[in-house]
Write a structure and sequence with these properties.
The chain has about 325 residues and is α/β, with parallel strands linked by helices. The chain has a 6-stranded mixed β-sheet, with helices on both faces. A 5-stranded mixed β-sheet has the order 8-7-9-6-10, sandwiched between helices. Helix 5 packs across helix 13. The longest helix has 21 residues.
Length: about 325
């Protein structure tokens, strides 16, 4: 077991009470001291890192890699906790129910944003978060079984053109949004099936229940030998580190289509003090600059594409417009 983090699924009532009390005391200190609270005093306790998706997916892997550098950077462990459900909004809601003290953060994607923006009476607003940083921007891929009759993009297009609406494509909300955008640009009608997590979509694809899954680079890498990527749906070509693992994969940008960015962002309670945001941002940046951490990231076929708080918040706000324009494709 890695001493820098552990995984849990519940929080003891006593500990939750103490964390709440700590948040109240911190707020009082900030109120009395104004902006004099030093970011260097944070943290003085463990940091809870919420993964609002199913275990084993790309976000879960990123959280564990980041957590492995927690003690070295912050002097306290980063404890990963998986809280999936409702397309990532269960974990997000949990963060909003904790004190705004920076001790609870979560790793997010387009998925919970899409869920909140598409649901009437959603339990929170898409603006109920402060973005600490963006740690990467991955490329989603269409994935098929190795022995599938639709073994490449050309055969997928041919099948979809001959059988409108019959091709089944599954993934998380963010991944199906990327697929929806590309299939729409290609003038093809398909059956898009949102899943609560990538692993569930992959399981159904491998079992023959859906034709195509949409997955992250980490998922594609883990499936070598069983399934293969046939199209890169992202906003940029694949990095060389991923090409070495999965081979060359056609990119939508080379076909005259526009791919969809899939940033992985770190979010906290929207009322978290700016001093704490600054410390978290610097700490996460330092963790991901570590050579051993970068090597772990490359081992899952991804790369660090880091944006600090200010730029990351701007990107997040821009993504809302991207989702809004593509949301009708999922309805």
């Amino acid at each position: 077991p890695n001493q820098n983090y552990h995984t849990t699924t519940v929080e003891e009532p006593t500990m939750k009470y103490l964390r709440t009390l700590k948040g109240v005391l911190l707020a009082a200190v900030i109120g009395l001291a104004g902006t004099s609270l030093s970011a260097q005093e944070f943290p003085t306790d463990d940091i809870q890192f919420i993964v609002p998706y199913s275990a084993g997916g790309g976000q879960d892997r990123w959280a564990r890699v980041i957590a492995s550098g927690g003690f070295t950077e912050f002097g306290h462990p980063i404890n990963v906790e998986v809280r999936p459900g409702a397309s990532g909004t269960v974990g997000w809601r949990y963060v909003l129910d904790q004190p705004a003290d920076g001790y609870t953060m979560f790793i997010g994607s387009l998925t919970p944003m899409i869920s909140v923006m598409s649901e009437d009476g959603a339990p929170m607003s898409v603006d109920d978060v402060k973005i600490v940083s963006i740690v990467s921007d991955f490329n989603s891929h269409l994935i098929v079984k190795n022995d599938s009759d639709i073994a490449d993009w050309a055969s997928i297009k041919a099948f979809a053109a001959e059988n409108p609406g019959a091709l089944t494509v599954g993934g998380t909300l963010s991944q199906t949004l990327a697929a929806a955008s590309v299939f729409s640009q290609a003038g093809l009608e398909v059956n898009l099936i949102p899943y609560p997590g990538t692993s569930a979509a992959v399981t159904d694809m491998l079992g023959g229940h859906i034709n195509v899954a949409v997955g992250t680079p980490a998922t594609v890498t883990s499936l070598v030998g069983e399934a293969k990527p046939v199209l890169n749906l992202g906003a940029r070509p694949n990095p060389e580190s991923l090409i070495k693992k999965i081979g060359e994969v056609p990119w939508v940008g080379d076909m005259g289509m526009t791919g969809v960015s899939q940033p992985r962002f770190i979010g906290v309670h929207p009322d978290t003090p700016d001093q704490i945001i600054t410390r978290l941002d610097a700490g996460l940046s330092n963790i991901l600059e570590d050579k051993s951490i970068a090597r772990l990231i490359r081992s899952i076929g991804e790369q660090v594409i880091y944006s600090g708080h200010k730029d990351a918040q701007t990107t997040y706000d821009q993504l809302k417009a991207v989702i809004e324009s593509n949301l009708p494709l999922l309805r």
